[in-house]
């Protein structure tokens, strides 16, 4: 297989294999520019899975504080119960957000795979 004709940021030639039927690798192929832009726009913003562990730790601390205040008599049992229910809603919201982000990621990956498969089929069709 041929090497990519793309030029890296440091000015050197890309050493990746070119996509069949193209002079470029996936990272330099002009037809993949939009997909690369979409993937790059997410970079650094999500922090893994949106940093759910920090949110969960915060909710756990808040729950412990409510429990402590209830046991020390600072909170009435009804008030503490409503506060704990609210924390439960927050936990479900974090879980739902995490599932939605995972689904978006899977959809993006599936779209990339479908595009690559279509590109391969097209390349085979033209005998490249």
Write the layout of secondary structure elements.
Layout: H1 33-42, H2 47-50, H3 52-71, H4 77-125
**Number of separate domains:** 2
Shape: elongated
> So what's the oligomer here?
single chain
- The rounded Rg comes to 25 Å
% residues in beta strands: under 5%
Number of helical segments with 4 or more residues? 4
Largest sheet: none
Comma- or semicolon-separated keywords:
65% helix, 2 domains, mainly alpha, 4 helices
Report a brief summary of the structure.
The protein is an all-alpha fold and 128 residues long. The protein contains 4 helices and no strands.
Q: Would you write up a description of this structure?
A:
The chain is mainly alpha-helical and 128 residues long. The chain has two domains: 1-42, no CATH class; 49-125, no CATH class. The chain has helices at 33-42, 47-50, 52-71, 77-125. Helix 3 runs antiparallel to helix 4 (77-125). It is elongated, with a radius of gyration of 25 Å.
């Amino acid at each position: 297989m041929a090497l990519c004709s793309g030029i890296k940021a440091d000015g050197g030639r890309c050493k990746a294999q070119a996509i069949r039927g193209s002079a470029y690798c996936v990272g330099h192929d002009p037809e993949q520019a939009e997909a690369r832009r979409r993937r790059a726009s997410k970079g650094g913003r999500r922090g893994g899975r949106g940093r759910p562990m920090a949110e969960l730790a915060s909710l756990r601390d808040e729950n412990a504080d409510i429990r402590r205040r209830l046991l020390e008599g600072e909170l009435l049992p009804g008030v503490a119960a409503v506060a704990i229910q609210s924390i439960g809603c927050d936990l479900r919201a974090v879980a739902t957000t995490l599932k939605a982000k995972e689904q978006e990621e899977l959809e993006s990956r599936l779209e990339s795979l479908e595009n690559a498969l279509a590109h391969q089929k097209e390349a085979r069709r033209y005998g490249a």
